Amino acid sequence: MSLTTDLSKIFKSQTAATSHLSAILDGLAAKSSENLDWRDSIVDLMKLFGMDSSLDDREKFATELGFTGELSDSPTMNIFLQNRVIIRIVDNHAVDVVARLNRRAAKNSEKLDWHDSVVDLMKLFGMDSSLDDREKLATKFGFTGDLSDSGTMSMWLHTRLIIKIVDNGGKVPTDVHTPVGKPKKSPKDKSARLCSKLPVKDAAIPMLLLFLHRFLKQTPPANDFEKGVQRFLADLPTDKLNILKIGLDAYDKLPPSIRECAFDTRFENRDDKSLLDPKLIFKVWFDEVLQLGTATLLNLKSGELRSGQVRPWEQTFIGSFMDGSNSKVITAPWPWICQVNPGADGNNWYKNAEVRMPGNLPLNTFIFKQHEFPIVCEKRPDPGDASKFTFDCRNQQPRDFAPIGGGFADCNGNNRYNFPDPNQGTVCLAVPKTYPGQGVFLRGLNFISPNCKARLQRVGGGFPDLVIDCGVVGDTETPLMRDGKIVASCEVEDVIMFTIPPEVKIGVNRVPVPPGRYVLQVIVPNDAKFVPTPGTAVAPADFTSNDVWLDMAPNPKQMYRIFTKEAFCIEETDGPGSDEPWFEAYSARFVPSEVGTGPVTIPSQAQSTIFRTDDIDSDDSIIFAAPDLFRDKLGINEVVAICVYGLEVDSEDAAAQQIKDFGEAYALYWKSFITHAVVEGDIAIVPVAIKAGLATGTAVAAGVAVLAAVALTGLFYAAWAPADPIGFDVMTFDSQSLFDLTNPTTPLPASFSKSFDELSLDVDPKEKEPQAGGTHAKYFEEHFYHSSDEDSTYKLVYGVERV
Q: What is the mean pLDDT of residues 97-107?
């Protein structure tokens, strides 16, 4: 008998899980002139498939399928046959369900054979599989046989349960079993990892709890700042105040060693009134914001400002020297700009061909990504439909530039931007583009002083040189020595950050920085008093880096929308039961009025739920209606940062409500606390820090969003809540990056990966979707959130469009 052939005729290309197994077989039964009950009769099931259902044929079929019991027209043989036929259908025509159940089984610590055992199938979904519970479930499903014959009853139940699971897309229906929440790590296990979660000891939680503790103890306010905080807490609904108390109790119960490692414990001294000074509160908060933002954007373990190490290397200089030579090799800690990140967001870095010079490395040592190659596009109409069109694009080549003084052209007029492509010949490298008011990151080596300066000279003149103070984050991970030699190449990643002023004072006037091409250098004070060799015996006052180019663009003005398009559970978390994921977004917008010359607006903060749902398994698409993450214009030097934080929460109603209540109470308290701190604190430190190069607007916005999402929500939940982190992400945007993302002819950003302790992120940009007229496009990128602790992967698709 060929059951596979018969099934293929019935199901054809249909997948039982997609079309519902019961619906397919019920539809087939409805076409029969007989009243066929395929669920309870193997005879009717075989008739449904056009098979001979005589006792002789059933006995032969049972033997063929491995039945070893008594061959007679017995309930046991018939139930066995029905079970094996249904399982064969599932194996051949519900392959997605089979794959899902196999993944569940592989993650279980027991060796579960769901295919042949109803006990193991029930265990797979966290159901109680005792004999008593199986008898109750069989009775609920309509079993009328002898319950004492547990073998036959279990086989019948196995069949019915498989059908229900397939009909429900690979899950147990909720009317059969309420999904079990995944086991959560204990507060002790989670709190033990707090030390490694942040690049700086957290002060925000102890500060909040200091004021909460004093309020609960009815301590009179020490100043107007505390008076405002206490007024807010007094107005909180009782349920929200009670939930904040849970956080305070959880913090106090943490082992002292954990608190000392993860938190700024000076704020535990609840009688020291100097700790209540709003200027101190704001400064401590701002310091943490800067370190968090810088470390997050640059994917560093610490965002602490520090000089790079001294790494001398040989550089060849061409010219006429006093000894009559035309070149000379001189050893010194020459500073070198290897990469430019013009948006100070840590994502798209730009190199040129001179990246090979320190260490004299082959150019193919370095990976150049697609966004580093400018493209030339031609819009071509569709011959069959004039309303449609495509873009014919290619990498820009030297022939696209007019040669100067005859001869061959170079890309951008300089051969450092020529790149040898084995397939196309020479193609061009992009000159990074920014605009006045924007922050810039540089990677390189020998940024050996905290007092480095960036110098910008406009090509063609017409504007005075800009000399800008910089902040430095030295590379502490690349070793100074390897195999007895100093490591001095673009493998080193010292980082410099600075902000281009939107305007400068010339005489009595403030003049905007004009667009155009600028030559960028870094001037590094010789704090080490290094004497170049060969050379004079006098140490130079400073060293000047190589040149790179930066194009200053006018700021585009356009309204944009940033939104979440889709979400998928690719791999659910470990353990029995289904996932209950909760993804939150925290956004912060940085709006300086004028860098270094006036007040700034501290980033406005917003919290929104992208989705919160339950009963999610591997391969599930998640249905949600999320609010926009951002919908507005961004003015010159404005930045918006969006931090996404994912939790897998306990499905038990009381616990889930507790988490929701705490999230709301915390958000209200945090917003009120920072608002009061801004009013009473020394906000002038923000523009001063930006002007001094100690921060960028992007780092400030990112730090505010990260602090709200991770330092507070994440750490509080880690301390007490039945919830485990499964995703973390920070996205930063300015008007230029949004314009480029929605420009159909601008290259896609590079794919990239980041990690944050046990959480990691992979970002994969997708092809743009040109909109009507071809002047703009929708842009989407997939973000894959991985948790090594939970062995889970969630995918969210974000989009950007012009409104």
A: 83
Residues 6+ apart with CB under 8 A from 653: none
Q: CB count, 10 Å around CB of 195?
A: 14
Q: What is the pLDDT of residues 580-634, one digit of tens each?
A: 888 988 888 887 654 333 344 555 677 888 988 877 888 889 988 878 999 998 8
Helices 95-107 & 75-93 angle (0-180, nearest 10): 100
Rounded Cα distance between 545 and 524, Å, is: 8
For 430-442, the pLDDT digits (tens) are 999 998 888 999 9
Burial of 154 (0-12, 13-18, 19+ CB in 10 A): buried
Number of C-alpha atoms within 13 angstroms, CB side, residue 155? 19
Cis peptide before 592, with omega less than 30 degrees from 0?
Answer: no
Tokens of 284: 């401590």
Q: What is the three-state SS of 457-505?
A: EECCCCCCCEEEECEEECCCCCCCEECCEECCCCCCCEEEEEECCCEEE
Cα–Cα nearest to 564, from 595, 589, 585, 588: 585
pTM above 0.85, yes or no: no
Structure tokens at 390: 């495509």
DSSP string, 402-424: PPSSSS---GGGSGGGEEEETTT
385-408 mean pLDDT = 67
* Distance, CA of 519 to CA of 487 (rounded, Å): 27
User: How many angstroms separate the CA atoms of 733 and 595, rounded?
Assistant: 18
- Backbone φ and ψ for 467, nearest 5 degrees, come out as -120, 115
Per-residue pLDDT tens digits for 757-792: 778 899 999 989 988 777 788 999 999 999 988 889
Structure tokens at 300: 């560093």
